[in-house]
C-alpha cells in the first residue's frame, strides 16, 4: 500500500525556520519525483517545488514564491523527502502536502498534510 | 510567471453535463503541458482524476474525461451526480515547473 506521511508542522514566528519531513512507503521511492504542495486556509492549491530523480537531471525546482527561501532534499535510503523552510512569512501559513510524480502523473497519492502556522 | 485560469464557479443540474476549462497565460495549452486534474471536497485531501491531458486513474469514473478544447485544457463531467459537488483544480507543467489553476467550485443544484 502506498503511503505518504508528513510531519514537522507547527507554530513558528515570522523570520524563523522549520523543516518538514515526508516519510514514504509502499513504492520504489527512488524512481519518483517528490513534490510539495501547499494550501492556505480557505484558498486553492499551490505547487511549492519538487526534487527529481537522477534520470531527470537538475535536482530541484521551486515556485517563484518560495525560491531562495525553501529547499527540498531527499534521502532515498530512508524514503524521506524534506522541505527546509527559512525566512518564513505569514503568507507561508498553510497545510503542506507531499505527493509523488512520475512521467507527469502527479498526485496519485497524497499524505494527510501537516499544518504550518507562521505568526508572532 | 505563469498564471493558470479556471472558472471560479459553475452550477450544473443532476444528470447534466458540465465542462471546466483551464487556460494558461503562456498561450495555447497543448499535450506538452501534461495537464492533471484534481477534485477536492471540504476537509479532504485532493484526489487525482486525470493526468497527461486525458488519461484516467483506475478510480476515475467513466463519466469524467479530460481533453484539449479551443486552446485550453478541459475537464468534462457527464451525468453529474450530487457527490460531484466539489472544488476542481487543473495543474499544468511549463518550463520545468508545475502551476495550479485557481480552482472551480462546482455546485450541483
Characterization of the model:
The complex is a heterodimer of chains A (120) and B (109). Chain A has 120 residues and is mainly β. Chain A contains no helices and 11 strands. Chain A has strands at 3-7, 10-12, 18-25, 33-39, 45-51, 60-62, 70-75, 80-85, 94-102, 105-110, 114-118. In chain A, strands 2, 4, 5, 6, 9, 10 and 11 form a 7-stranded mixed sheet that branches. In chain A, a hairpin with an 8-residue loop joins β5 and β6 (60-62). The relative contact order of chain A is 0.32. Chain B has strands spanning 4-6, 9-12, 18-24, 36-40, 47-51, 55-56, 64-69, 72-77, 86-94, 97-100, 104-108. In chain B, strands 2, 4, 5, 6, 9, 10 and 11 form a 7-stranded mixed sheet that branches. Chain B has a 4-stranded antiparallel sheet with strand order 1-3-8-7, with no helix packed on it. In chain B, 40% of the residues are buried. The A-B interface holds A 35, 37, 44-47, 50, 58, 61-64, 97, 103-108, 110-113 and B 1, 34, 36, 38, 40, 45-46, 48, 51-52, 55, 57, 87, 89, 91, 93, 96-103.
Structural class of chain A: mainly beta
Task: Tell me the total number of β-strands of chain B.
Answer: 11
- Overall residue-averaged pLDDT value of chain B: 97
Radius of gyration of chain A: 14 Å
- Number of alpha- plus pi-helical segments of chain A: 0
- Uncertain runs of chain A are none
Q: Which regions of chain B are unreliable across 5 or more consecutive residues at pLDDT < 50?
A: none
Number of helices of chain B: 0
The N- to C-terminal Cα distance of chain B equals 36 Å
